[in-house]
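input
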Amino acid sequence: GVYFKGATYDILSFRKMPVGVSGGISLSGTIAGFIGALVLGIATGYSYHFSTTVIGWITIAGFTGMLMDSILGSWLQVKYKNADGILSDDALTGSKKVHGFSWCSNNTVNLISNIAITSLFFYILHQIS
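output
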């Protein structure tokens, strides 16, 4: 995606989309997201002396949160097409809304996905404790 210059696809429709548009994923970005979740899981586990099981759940929660953010970005977040027909998250001059809800910005998606994944993580921790 943005950092690796790979092809980006909408997580729900699998249609090719411009790099950097919410809801888009790339293979390299998805792999990097998993590695990032794993590194954070290991670092947290080491710092707080968590078991391997909890480190695994932290990693899964982080990776799932990344995917949830992309799903919500694709499904809910407002998207525009500019005069050249290019899809964007931004309402530029001459652009037209083509998808999503006007009230749903990237910040809204981030808030919803963080609340959802944190709630799910605490539920899972409660079940395995």
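quick obs: The beta strands are 8-10, 16-17, 24-25, 79-81, 87-88, 96-99.
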